[in-house]
């Protein structure tokens, strides 16, 4: 796993805030994803294999993988935002490198370039299968900090 970057968050309670926000995200709860680790500039989400999340060949569906990886990237950016800022993805690109086959998946979002308004984050999806790890997808995400809106909460 890529080591967490050496960033100093502006909000000392960033980890608590990220975990509370993730708990409100019902989409991730629906697919069984959970937060495994929160560091300044990096968030790790874990997702167990589930047959109802697969495509026709039995691999984890790319849309599910992309949604979870987008969340890991968004929350990685959020760790470096002020306490009153929400984060929204404004663009991402995903590369599927191998079929998403495994017993569980680790989705890692790592900030490349933090910013007051716009941040760039890299994502990596790793399939874990019987002690083996395989990189199955990468993502490049651009995110925007949002403040002062009732419909975008931190």
Strand share of the residues? 35-45%
Q: How are helices and strands ordered from N to C?
A: HHEEHEEEE
**What spatial form do the alpha-carbon principal axes imply?**
globular
Which CATH class applies here?
Alpha Beta
**Count of β-strands:** 6
Q: Compute the CA-based radius of gyration.
A: 15 Å
How many helical elements? 3
Number of domains: 1
CATH topology group? Thiol Ester Dehydrase, Chain A
Q: Which stretches of 5+ consecutive residues score pLDDT under 50?
A: none
Q: Largest beta sheet: what is the strand line-up?
A: 1-2-4-5-6-3
Task: Give structural notes.
The protein contains three helices and six strands, in the order ααββαββββ. The chain is of the alpha+beta class and 154 residues long. Strand 1 and strand 2 (42-48) form a beta hairpin. It has a six-stranded antiparallel beta sheet. It has a single domain (14-146), classed as Thiol Ester Dehydrase, Chain A (Roll), CATH 3.10.129. The two termini are 27 Å apart. Helix content is 22%, strand content 40%. It has helices at 14-24, 26-31, 62-78; strands at 34-39, 42-48, 86-96, 104-113, 118-129, 132-146.
Note the main attributes of this structure.
154 residues, alpha+beta, 3 helices, 6 strands, 22% helix, globular
